């Protein structure tokens, strides 16, 4: 069992969630693609192949619970939502390949919320999310050939 799955199971237990076969399988699917965002519809299809009786609602609810517990990151794409295990590193930013879903870490300039708070008088910024999208080098090479 991967470290990310073991950590996720421990987090679920501490939050008083039952450890079901479906949750274990969902975590295993995510761990198998840990460096890629997976379309939630693809994940839903894979889960329904493994567990014919599982509902879409159960899968989406579990992903929402995983996100609330900080186990996964969910992002929006032009064709829907995608999910991946949350990175272990402290706050950082990603480049996400729109073709294969691969996630690459990128460095950004120092974050200064005061710059944005000046544009929003009276507001207090408590966080941000920044992602770049495009094609990774592998997908660019594949497209050229």
Overall SS class: alpha+beta
Q: What is the chain-wise order of helices and strands?
A: HHEHHEEEEHEH
Name the shape in a single word.
Answer: globular
Strand content: 15-25%
Any low-confidence stretches, pLDDT <50, length ≥5?
A: none
Euclidean distance between termini CA atoms: 38 Å
Number of helices: 6
**What about the largest sheet?**
3 strands, antiparallel
Biggest sheet, spatial arrangement of strands:
1-3-2
What is the number of beta strands? 6
Task: Round the mean pLDDT to the nearest integer and report it.
Answer: 88
Percent range of helical residues: 40-55%
CA radius of gyration: 17 Å
Write the layout of secondary structure elements.
Blueprint: H1 3-14, H2 21-32, E1 38-39, H3 40-50, H4 56-68, E2 72-77, E3 80-85, E4 93-97, E5 103-106, H5 113-117, E6 131-134, H6 137-144
Parallel strand pairs: 4-6
Antiparallel strand pairs: 1-3, 2-3, 4-5
Helix pairs in contact: 1-2, 2-3
Question: What's a quick, concise take on this entry?
Answer:
The chain is α+β, with helices and mostly antiparallel strands.
Q: What does it look like?
A:
- There is one protein chain.
- Helices cover 42% and strands 19% of the residues.
- The chain has 145 residues and is α+β, with helices and mostly antiparallel strands.
- The strands form two sheets. It has a three-stranded antiparallel sheet. A three-stranded mixed sheet has the order 5-4-6, with no helix packed on it.
- A hairpin with a 2-residue loop joins strand 2 (72-77) and strand 3 (80-85).
- Helix 1 runs antiparallel to helix 2 (21-32).
- The longest helix is centred in the middle third of the chain and has 13 residues, at 56-68.
- The termini are far apart.
- The model has no long low-confidence stretch (mean pLDDT 88).
